[in-house]
Amino acid sequence: MKTWLITGCSSGLGRNLAHAVLDAGFNAVITARNPATVQDIVDVYPQTALAAALDVSDKDAVERVVKLAEERFGGIDVLVNNAGYGYRAAVEEGEDDQVAELFATNFFGAVSMIKAVLPGMRARRSGAIVNITSIAARLAMPGSAYYSATKFALEGVSDALRREVEPLGIKVLIVEPGAFRTDFAGRSLHGAATTIADYDESVGPRRKENDKTHGTQPGDPARAAKLLIEVIGGKTLPVRLLLGSDAVQIVGDEIAAQLKEIADWKEISASTDFPKGS
């Protein structure tokens, strides 16, 4: 775990993780669209920290940052795909350009980072890729369809990737945070410019202007950051790591409901098979 590359470090979990990694004595390439927002961290750790400008939706920028990291520290041992933001809109309200931009950052940006670090990790037969998704990748709430879709997609890629690279000595971890006291429900939350009144009851309470959760979330990003370092440094990794008591409760309830539905419908589901012996 000598060198980490972390995306989205200007605030929240990314910033806390950058601090924790450097406090632990590791090297860290800490990225943000505006590197001035993380320069204060580099100033404290001038020998082991490197700030870099990065918009993960820009493939050329992704390649430049990975090359810069390899030149400075010799290679990337841990990639943390943390960059991303929220978007609230009913499906019908979703603006095509905004949805495309959301996918470009939350999904395709992470994929670009993965593809850029894998050659070095394959050559060394070691490394860890950590994809920060959300409990929204387990269930989609009204108004969060498009955000959830980006996280469902990233988990699908992560599941297949894990099986592809495990024989090469590379680990993949999916991290599913619940509600953490970050800027996610504040500065990092976007919403549709035009709304439809028919969705005021279902989507309305979750629209950005009505969201009252900012600053009250139960999760502590500093504790989450320290925990991630411990987990990633362990001999074995879970496939998915829930973060937060709310995440455990919400996802646990959702899985239980899904299992019950499978059991309730199993005979009908199985009735589409050819008759036995045919």
Task: Describe the fold and architecture.
With 278 residues, the chain is α/β, with parallel strands linked by helices. It has a single domain, classed as Rossmann fold. 44% of the residues lie in helices and 15% in strands. It contains seven helices and nine strands; from the N terminus they run E-H-E-H-E-H-E-E-H-E-H-E-E-H-E-H. Helix 1 packs across helix 6 (221-232), helix 3 runs parallel beside helix 4 (96-124) and helix 4 (96-124) runs parallel beside helix 5 (145-165). The radius of gyration is 20 Å and the shape is globular.
CATH domain fold name: Rossmann fold
- Count of DSSP H/I helices: 7
Strand content: 15-25%
Ranges where pLDDT stays below 50 over 5 or more residues in a row are none
What's the overall average pLDDT, rounded? 93
Q: What is the element string, with H for helices and E for strands?
A: EHEHEHEEHEHEEHEH
SSE-based structural type: alpha/beta
CATH architecture: 3-Layer(aba) Sandwich
> How many domains?
1
Largest sheet: 7 strands, parallel
State the CATH class: Alpha Beta
Lateral arrangement of strands in the main beta sheet: 3-2-1-4-6-7-9
The total beta strand count reads: 9
Q: Approximately how much helix is present in the residues?
A: 40-55%
Q: In angstroms, what separates the terminal alpha carbons? A: 55 Å
